[in-house]
Design brief:
3-stranded antiparallel beta sheet; 13 helices; globular; 436 residues; alpha+beta
Amino acid sequence: MDRSPPEANRARRRLRACHECDWLVALPALRPGEQADCPRCGHTLVTRHRYPAQRSMALAIAAMVALVVAVSFPFVSFTVRGIGNRIELTETATTLIGFQQPVVAIAVILSIVVLPAVYLIGVIWLQFGLLRGTPLPAGRSIARSLAHLHPWMMADVFIVGALVSLIKISGMAQVELGIAFWAFCTFALLLLVTTQSVDSDWLWFSLAGEPRAPGGARTGTTAAPQGLTGCPTCGLVNRLSREGHGHCVRCGERLHARHPYSLQRTWALLAAASILYLPANLYPIMTTTSLGHASPSTIIGGVVELVQMGSWPVATVIFVASVIVPVGKLVALAWLCLVVSRSDELNGVARTRLYRLTEFIGRWSMVDVFVVAILVALIRAGTLMSITPGPAALAFGGVVVLTMLAAMTFDPRLIWDPPLPRRSTPRLDPQQGGVQ
């Protein structure tokens, strides 16, 4: 499969437009282990792997085996004063349904089991077809879906949530880890390596080839003024219509010169997340019942309790993931929206790095939601000891999802667009995503 890489035809230019700064470049010939970065902002455009099909398929199969083991055996158990409980992985979601938290339950099971399984099956399907020499049906649609599924898979975040949960109850009860716990840890690691091993540039070249670059394209400048844009899914540079719209000729993805109403949508999502953040912190996220006495706990209250118990590392993890990260992401995205028109005064590279950071850390705020899901399913010993979810769990989950969507709707290419004239009359331009 490595005998005909995309660089084999040196007579054809392979253009790419950076998704973060819109800089148009011609890809060099890459050998396995090399990557091509944008010379303007440093964003990685292409990463080449050795044996891309065999590598990602083997890892995906191994991850699927680990996932099957993780959902088939006991996950964790606890015992306190002769009374205990044992749960399986899927019970962390199904138990929430019994406490009138179906939305949170769906989010948990989707992010740790369903979406990762769909992703792995898609990788196996695509690579098996390429290894046999003939792509299997629906290959392009599946390849498009892989890019959209990636941000919502949170098996690694769930592992952190599980460790936090076990540390919280280890002082109150005897905890025993099941086979499924270690299998899921293995699965989370394999899933992470699988996502990093997928060479999307090679994959799309193998599925649909490389159409010729649009005529007259000039590298070393931005793509939008030339009526061009790079596909966010397969990377192919396409020519847009006069209105700044189009569809990718290779994968069919909808294309825009800039995300329509990018700033307006980002502001709306940030406003909704800010509103939900209030009940997420004011209402209890879970209620602990011990010897018949119920003790509701907010996010901050849980951090304080952990500090009083001496669990400084766990308290730090919860405080950072549940307080610092959401607030920091709201502030960072709001600041980026405010300063997009000041490209001449602020460093574009620094702002782009800030955007990358906000996009990366947003999913880690789900740690607290996973902690609640695990503890609610595990700690069920009646009046002796039990934990029930509070209304803040749904609100906080909504904050996480909305901030992730806000980062996705914000178009980082706006950071690099030319600054607006100081004395011009502002007007809204849906193609540029904001004020022009």
